[in-house]
Amino acid sequence: MNKGMVQVDQERLRAQLEKKLPPKVRLFQLDDIPGVMRSRMGWPVAAALMERWFRGAPFKMPGPMKRGEAVSRPSTLSAAQLDENTVSMAWARGFARVNAAMAKLQSQWATPAGVVQLKKIVREQGLGRLGTQAWRLGDLSKPAKILDETCQVNYLGFGRLSDPLDDFYGAMGEATLKVAVSGMVTPKGTGKTSIAIDELGFYLRDAYDFNDGENSFLSQPLGFWGFGGVERLQWGSGVSISEQWVQETDAQVRSHTYLVQNTDFRRWRALHGRGGDFIVLSNVHRVQLPFPIHMEW
């Protein structure tokens, strides 16, 4: 058999094998998650927040910003580092655990720490005011980033890893509910002050980032994801952070699930040069009290 015939036979054999193999199909990868959230799971808010992270310029949130320290107040953050438009309290109040947190904070906001904070902001904002003229503390028509500095007095952390897998879980997870107050302040001639609080404002805050603790040996797991959705307990290898193709059937590819961890997002950011952490603030849900709460000190 001459060399030309051997080459023809090899090409014929290769063609026959290729006919038997399924076409190449792209494997699930990390930045497919928002699309799965939106189309398969009905999580529009969670999808929007993650899409924003993937689109953003690379930015790792520093600790003071994550903790909400004064050096990184929301009003000082750039538009790239603060999202005020995606999460609404109307959406959040569709989840029972948010309403439970609101009810708890409404009934318990006046803790010793809450009263100390109230006195502090009344004292600071009362400086320079003349005589015994009454004035109003807190304009709850302002956005949350302003209330955070002017009349926010207490907060409640809520949410657990065991919460239902829903849009709130995907968007906020463990979040912080804050309460701001509004009421009439009346200086007393004896050097005392009284306040009649007649309205409360509630809003949500969260740090949208994928940073593990400085001393964390294991990255936080975020579930087992695939084209079909997410499972808490499953089996799978680590998720890909770049495009990969395999010769499998579409059904086979869609049956795979992959472990997703915080570190995968950081690796994706390093590879693609995008991925920006940011603070999330909701709008303000206002509650007019049936009877004012009177305090004097």
List the topology elements.
Layout: H1 3-20, E1 25-26, H2 33-39, H3 44-55, H4 63-67, E2 82-83, H5 89-92, H6 96-108, H7 112-126, E3 135-137, H8 144-150, E4 152-158, H9 167-171, E5 175-187, E6 193-208, E7 221-226, E8 229-231, E9 245-246, H10 250-255, E10 258-261, H11 262-272, E11 278-281, E12 285-296
Parallel strand pairs: 2-11
Antiparallel strand pairs: 1-9, 3-5, 4-5, 5-6, 6-11, 6-12, 7-8, 7-10
Helix pairs in contact: 2-3
Number of strands: 12
Distance between the termini: 107 Å
Order of SSEs, N→C?
HEHHHEHHHEHEHEEEEEHEHEE
Unreliable stretches: none
Helix content percent band = 25-40%
Global shape: elongated
The biggest sheet, with number of strands, parallel, antiparallel or mixed sense and barrel status, is: 7 strands, mixed
Question: Which structural class do you get from the secondary structure elements?
Answer: alpha+beta
Helix count, DSSP H or I runs of 4 or more residues: 11
Strand coverage percent: 15-25%
The value of Rg in angstroms is: 27 Å
Mean pLDDT: 91
